[in-house]
Write a structure and sequence with these properties.
This protein is 16% helix and 44% strand. It is α+β, with helices and mostly antiparallel strands.
Length: 335
């Protein structure tokens, strides 16, 4: 690999950095992964034709989303703001499309009088010969195959007796762990029999590289404290009503590998559950609620082949173990 860096031509933006790897290949003028550039194709002299192509999907910028935090907030405490997420970025910025096509699709053909290429409102308008237009269409299809993928991440949190959970983790030989087909079949049968109880089942769909989160939770309210106002002869107590949530939040950022066989996924999973009935505590101004919450947090990065299941974490409490499974599925964007 070689690091290549520099500034974009005609731009005052920051420095670009690329990782480039070269490998030997037969001198056929084609790239094995995608026929992006064919240096031996020359411009033809056929009649000029105008066509338009819809490139709005390549320009669409999807924002990242992390979801709400599941936790109890102490009285008189304002939690800090989480770090800002990255600005939404499109796969192919609109202003880059014409220059990219001129460089990759029969470069010499664009010097001919009457040819044109521009993007307006998500549509690419091209005037060139039929042969060049066919190659433009092929390039756009390649970019979609390479970048426009949706990753569906299925998360299951199951609960089982401690002893059985330890046996499962022992067979897994450490965490995180990819289940073999035989192990996945054993887990599926155990869920059907009820030996493994699914307590949460959440699915997250994310465009390749985008961070998304899904939440399955129950809201509850409670009296957290009292705001006391003292006057000369009176005292006023105003209850502070707080909201809480018990449930699961699954936050993932998937990045499929170049082969499309697996996905590098950064996952953040939070699971909360009220430990018992909310108890009340007497105060001079009235009773306040004192909820107790069990909290399970799992964070990590893992390479998971598509269609396979991985055990990514586990936690034990009161003789019961909770185990989290993740299973990614790759599908074309928009289908």
């Amino acid at each position: 690999w070689q690091v290549v860096q520099g500034n974009a031509v005609g731009s005052n933006e920051g420095r670009w950095i690329f990782l480039v790897r070269a490998r030997s290949a037969p001198c056929s003028g084609r790239v094995a992964a995608g026929h992006l550039v064919d240096p031996f194709v020359s411009a033809d002299t056929g009649p000029l034709v105008s066509r338009r192509f819809d490139v709005s999907d390549l320009e669409e910028a999807l924002p990242d989303y992390r979801g709400p935090e599941l936790n109890l907030v102490p009285s008189n405490f304002t939690p800090p703001e989480p770090p800002e997420l990255a600005e939404p970025a499109s796969i192919l910025p609109q202003e880059a499309v014409p220059d990219l096509i001129r460089e990759l699709v029969v470069p010499g053909s664009w010097n001919r009088d009457g040819t044109a290429i521009e993007v307006r409102y998500g549509l690419l308008f091209v005037t060139n010969t039929e042969k060049v237009l066919a190659r433009v269409e092929s390039l756009l299809a390649h970019l979609r195959r390479q970048h426009l993928w949706t990753v569906d991440m299925e998360a299951r949190l199951v609960e089982l007796p401690d002893e059985e959970g330890r046996s499962l983790l022992l067979a897994a030989d450490g965490l995180p762990h990819l289940l073999s087909d035989a192990q996945a079949e054993v887990v599926a049968r155990a869920i059907e029999r009820g030996t493994l109880q699914v307590i949460d089942h959440v699915g997250v769909s994310s465009l390749s590289g985008a961070r998304k989160a899904a939440l399955s939770a129950r809201h509850f309210t409670y009296v957290q404290d009292f705001e006391v106002e003292l006057a000369q002869k009176t005292t006023t107590s105003n209850p502070v009503i707080q909201q809480g949530m018990e449930g699961i939040r699954v936050d993932v950022q998937p990045a499929p590998t170049s082969t499309g066989q697996a996905v590098n996924v950064a996952y953040h999973v939070t699971r909360t559950r009220l430990a018992r009935e909310i108890r009340q505590v007497s105060t001079p101004h009235g009773p306040i609620d004192a909820p107790e919450m069990e909290l399970l947090r799992l964070r990590g990065n893992l390479l998971i082949p598509f269609g396979q299941t991985a055990i990514v974490g586990a936690g034990s409490h009161d003789g019961r173990m909770q185990v989290l499974f993740l299973r990614p599925v790759l599908r074309p964007y928009g289908r």
